[in-house]
Design brief:
It is a single chain. The chain is an alpha/beta fold. The chain contains 8 helices and 7 strands, in the order αβαβααβαβαααβββ.
Length: about 250
């Protein structure tokens, strides 16, 4: 969605290295925002984004307007009723319908051989993988690792919404995920114990952070796990002030 940061740049580098021609779409997609969300205020930096794309060796930048992507009233969507019901789904109704719809449209416009998404948005990546299979796209999906700030906070365009105090507090997501990995390495595999310890650590960290969810799910099925093991995805979403942040870790 533009406002290209180092997380996006890492995916662009993967695409440039792995293809004859790399195409980047830049589009703040209105159909994935619910009422009251930050569509109007979402960061937009078209000229800076295009300069980054050129510097990284991108061959094509596709920067459509809403009128180009949605020339008629939107009444046809790509909807999914399994993976989109987990994790962020209950908190952002309609979000993943909008994501899948615009990704399908972008795939149809660009006709890529490969597509590059980030692990930070693990649920989005899983949904795109499912759509590629279900709708018979001949596209190879590549997932790039989460890129983080020096203190571990996952890079996100929405980080700029944080005040200095909120920015300091936001590191609690990464710290909680580190705790989950440490507990697992020390022999704990009960998901309820691990997520409870994560909640306690977040809540003890100072100014309030509102936890939307902390869950341990199978990375492929997104079903809750009875025991944490390798390929368990531990994901969380919190609100730091008014800013919603997500992060996750794959247990290894």
């Amino acid at each position: 969605m533009g406002d290209i940061h180092e997380g996006h740049a890492s995916l662009i580098r993967m695409a440039v290295a792995g293809s004859h021609a790399a195409a980047v779409s830049i589009f703040v997609n209105p159909t994935q925002f619910s009422g009251g969300e930050d569509f109007e205020s979402y960061p937009r930096s078209r000229d800076e984004d295009l300069a980054v794309c050129e510097a990284l060796g991108v061959s094509v930048a596709f920067v459509p307007t809403s009128e180009i992507m949605y020339p008629e009233p939107v009444n046809l969507f790509v909807d999914e009723d399994r993976f989109s019901n987990a994790l962020c789904g209950p908190f952002r109704p309609g979000h993943f319908r909008g994501v899948l719809t615009v990704v399908a449209k972008l795939f149809n416009v660009v006709s890529p051989d490969s597509a590059y998404f980030g692990q930070k948005d693990a649920q989005q990546a899983r949904l795109v993988k499912h759509m590629i299979s279900a709708l018979n796209y001949s596209i190879e999906l590549h997932i790039g690792p989460t890129v983080r700030e020096h203190d571990g906070l996952a890079i996100s365009s929405r980080n700029r919404y944080l005040s200095p105090e909120e920015r300091r507090r936001a590191v609690c997501l990464h710290d909680a995920l580190n705790l989950a990995q440490e507990l697992y390495r020390d022999g704990e595999n009960a998901p309820g114990v691990i997520t409870s310890r994560m909640r306690r650590q977040i809540n003890e960290g100072g100014p309030p952070v509102t936890i939307e969810y902390i869950e341990a799910v199978d990375a492929d099925t997104f079903d809750p796990v009875a025991a944490v093991k390798p390929q368990t995805l531990i994901a969380l979403a919190v609100r730091v002030g008014n800013t919603r942040l997500i992060d996750n870790v794959m247990i290894e």
